[in-house]
Amino acid sequence: DSGVTQTPKHLITATGQRVTLRCSPRSGDLSVYWYQQSLDQGLQFLIQYYNGEERAKGNILERFSAQQFPDLHSELNLSSLELGDSALYFCASSAGHQNTEAFFGQGTRLTVV
Amino acid sequence: AQTVTQSQPEMSVQEAETVTLSCTYDTSESDYYLFWYKQPPSRQMILVIRQEAYKQQNATENRFSVNFQKAAKSFSLKISDSQLGDAAMYFCAYRRSGAGSYQLTFGKGTKLSVIP
User: Fold this and answer.
1) Dihedral sign, Cα of residue B34, residue A107, residue B46, residue B102
2) Among A104, A108, A109, which would you mutate to test the B interface (most chain B Cβ atoms within 10 Å of its Cβ)?
3) Which terminus of chain A has fewer Cβ atoms in its 10 Å neighbourhood, N or C?
4) What is the CB neighbour count within 10 angstroms for residue A65?
5) Angle (nearest 5°) at CA A92 between A88 and A96
C-alpha cells in the first residue's frame, strides 16, 4: 500500500458527460501529480499541484481541470468526455523536494461509452 | 524536452535466469534522476530502483541492479534470479533535478514474461 488513495477505482460514463476523480496523498506529502495511461499515448503527465497551487502543466486538455484543496486532497475534473478519454488515471504524491520519491495510487479506470 | 525510449516492447525470461531491460533517454541537463517502475496486472505503479545522475556507482536493490552509462544516456535494468512475481510491465522514467516541478517522463514500457 503506497498510502495514496484514489477513488473511484472504476468509472463508466457516457460521451459528453463530466466526472470527478479524487486523490488523497500520503500523509505529509504536499505535491500531487496526475498522470494518464492509455494504450496509444502511454503514461503522460497531466498536471501538478504543490500545497494548493498549480506548479506545472503537461499534456492536459482544456476540457480537463484539477485543483488541490486545503486538506491537500486533489480532484481531477474531466468534462465533455470523448471515447478517447478512456484511460487509467493515476495520482502520485511526494513531499515536493527534489530528493523525494513519488508514490502512486492504484489509479482510476475510466471507460467512456 | 526530455524523452525516454524503451526499445523492447516485450521480453521473456526463464525462471531463475537473468534478464536485462534497456532504456535510453535524451536530456540536455547534467543532473537528474532515473527510475524503473514495475506495473503488475494489479496496475499499481511500484518503484523498483532509482539512480541519481551525479552518482557514478550503479544502484542495486536486492535482485535488481542498473547499468547507468551517463555519456551514452543509457539506463538498463538487470533482474537476477527471475521469479514468477517479476512478470509485469516495466517502465523507465526520467525526472529533472533542481528547483521546480518533478514530474516523471516515462518510456513506453517493456512487458516482461517469466516462464516457469
Assistant:
1) positive
2) A104
3) N
4) 14
5) 155
Q: Cβ of A89 under 8 Å from any chain B Cβ? A: no
Residue B92 is given by DSSP the state E
Q: To which residue does cell 502543466 refer?
A: A57
Q: For residue A76, give the C-alpha cell.
A: 481531477
Residues paired with A103 in a beta bridge: A93
User: In this structure, what DSSP letter does residue A99 have?
Assistant: T
Interface size between A and B, measured as CB pairs under 8 A: 54
Task: For A54-113, write each residue's pLDDT tens digit.
Answer: 999 998 999 999 999 999 999 999 999 999 999 999 999 998 776 678 899 999 999 999
Dist. CA A27–CA B104, nearest whole Å = 21
Contact A98 B99 (CB under 8 A): yes
Cα–Cα distance between B7 and B107 in angstroms, integer?
9
Q: Is the bond preceding residue A8 a cis peptide, omega within 30 degrees?
A: yes
Q: What is the mean pLDDT of residues B60-75?
A: 96
Task: Encode B70-97: b = buried (16+ Cβ within 10 Å), e = exposed.
Answer: eeebebbbbbeebeeebbbbbbbbbbbb
| pLDDT (tens digit per residue) in B29-56 | 888 999 999 999 999 999 999 999 998 8
Grid coordinates representing B9 are: 516492447
Q: Please answer yes or no on whether B105 and A92 come within 8 Å at the CB atom.
A: no
pLDDT of the residue at A12 = 98
